Fold this sequence. Notes:
Blueprint: E1 9-12, E2 17-20, E3 35-39, E4 42-52, E5 56-65, E6 83-88, H1 96-110, E7 115-121, E8 124-131, E9 134-140, E10 147-153, H2 159-173, E11 177-179
Antiparallel strand pairs: 1-2, 3-4, 4-5, 5-6, 6-10, 7-8, 7-11, 8-9, 9-10
Amino acid sequence: MLSFQLESGIYLENTRTLVPWATEIGSLPRFGSPVVTRKSNGVWTEWRGCRCLGGLVCKVEACQLFEPAQPSAYHIFLPEFHWAMLTLGPKGHLTRDLLRRTLRHLEGHLGAPHYFYAKYSAGLPVVWWELDRVKVMIGPAYGADLASVEVSHEPSGFEDLRRRAAEWEAEHGVGAREDYSEDAVAF
Length: 187
């Protein structure tokens, strides 16, 4: 069993609400009181002012984009909840200290990370855990001045998308990744 009920979904500790994996995106408002934004290209669901992953203060976001799925990030194109971004702190709050403290906190619960990408965004790395059917990543939110933890769940079904994602990862993603070591990650 994984820490924080990650095998089942994202647990919003402050409201004692589990948002289960595989929930249809349109049904997410049943869990807590999220803000839902609908646009022509997708739907975004945000739970603001949450505590998750053992007390981390965050905003939890889920989305579904309405365009052809990109293999590198196929979870955000699915009609079900299989991806969440937990934003730590307000915009402009991306600090090495926050990332370092959050990394240590997660290590205490999830064990040592498995790999990292050295310069993901803002000159900072991202660090990954691969746990059964769940992946957890900590680092800067891509293209934003924010620290985040992303959690993705490998769904049942969607075989074609999962196969294309694995092919994309083998061709593009693995080359830059390095095995994790505490000395190599510069947070």
